[in-house]
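[job 4471] stage=fold_predict status=RUNNING
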Amino acid sequence: MIDDYFQKTYAGWLGKIIGIRLGSPIEGWPYEQIKETYGEIHDYLVDYRDYAADDDSNGPLFFARALLDFDPETITEREMAHTWLNYVPEHHGFFWWGGYGISTEHTAYDNLKNGLEAPLSGSMLQNGASCSEQIGGQIFSDCWGFVCPGNPEKAGEWAAKMARVSHDGEAVYGGMFIAGSVSAAYNSSSVREVMEKGLSLIPADSQYARLCREVMDFYDNDREKNWRSCMQ
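[job 4471] inference complete, writing structure tokens
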């Protein structure tokens, strides 16, 4: 049992919600546009009167229902996909319904509706690399870490299965890394330890792992610890 599980889970979820809320007004903007428009950012950019939940927060909560509806120990990608069809409203709300072949989740949902079962529904073979390797596999995977505190391997396993409903390739690795890192954070003492555990779940020669390693190496060798230099 993880000490302070509720408090740690609440803190992790709150951090995600803060990031969603902070980034919404500038989603898709390049760095230079953000810098020219806002300069240094120290607070929320827009004082919303109302702020509706979006797929970044809905997804993890809905997806975790798969563990209530099916046997967690034997659950398959096909059963994970049933959670989509059971709980996701068709072509409105929840996901970005940006068009078949454009929006990964839209594409996968239509594939499922038309009888293509997971993991074919999210495969590169079916949808192509540019669609199947978008970022949703990473964005929606926090939940598996939250429900597997201190068990990164199980978190990564469930993240991979759900990610393959809609994604493939590097996008699946992103989901596994995030889920494993969230799980590891419950009983780790440093960010480095968290990242190492997340990276241990994915192939070392994957593009995702190589990029993480490059950022970590840059940090180690940068005396100023300047994130802008790293980004450049």
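[job 4471] summary: The longest helix spans residues 5-23.
[job 4471] exit 0
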